[in-house]
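Entry: Phenazine biosynthesis protein
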Amino acid sequence: MSTLRYYTIDVFSSIPFKGNPLAVVDTTTTTPSLTATQMKLIARQFNLSETTFICPPTDNTTDNPTHTNEPANNKADWRLRSFLPNGEEVFGAGHNSLGAWWWISQSGLVDRPSGNGKTFHQELGNTILPVSISSSPSPSSEHITISMRQGTPQFLNTYTDRESLARSLGIKEPDLGMRYAGIEIDEVRVVTTSPARHLLVPVRSVDVLRGVSFGDKHAIEDVLVRAGSYNSGVYVFTLVSAPVGNEEGSIIPSFEARFFSPAMGMEDPATGSAAGPLGAYLYTGVNGSVGLRGGDGMMRIEVLQGVQTGRRCLMNVRVEDVGDGVGVWISGTGVLVAEGSIVVPSLDLSF
């Protein structure tokens, strides 16, 4: 029986057994290439929130990359394919791709950078997006940070049935919404930077956030359907701390979030494909506000997630105008916790 090497990365943390677990499978030298069914079977076997396969780029990556301002001659260095345990393929630039690039940076599949970031490109579905890898020494070892640009933000349906939404989450209707810098932020809306259309839901406080229940899966599914979401989940967030100045003088507000997708069947410890849209939601402005951006026209936020699952994750989001729209970047790190070999599923098997 032929086998493939796999690696389990805890993403958005440098501490093993924290972060969001991701299975990464290297298929760069696999001949013949794995079929989609084989990938789905392997993802089901791992039963993590996502499994990512590193593949050679396809031949259709020589045209203009979509959803970025990157030059037309950029080609993908690697193609990433990510699957949920239920076999659904996802294309967001979140923990599924950031964790894969963290492993790529360790594996020799690209030249290891030293110091300031070096830019590569990833193919996700029919999109090519830039990825920056930077390194800095830590007290015990080299610290690798991955920063990825997400797709162009799209602001889709708002959801106005607040009573049904609150009921589906096990909270009260007045618990929806929050205040920041004197602005009432209470718009519940689908915002996306990828095919995954997540519903963003602000709540009043950390206590309300931690009191949210994802137990009524069917009620949450009904809300997502009526919101016009698909391949999606509900992303509940609140302000944790007021802005403080960092060493560059930027203003960094901190938020805490929780995410549940009925397709996953479990609470996700970190959801980069929702944290990026949250940044766009805050940057662009809601309820007529001008958005939560600094004097330089740029906004940075920290997003903490996974507290309820015991897997504390930290994501950094940067949003700025890029000429033809809004650019969203998400960054974080990872840590290797396991590696081994997995049998390649037979072509006779079905999913």
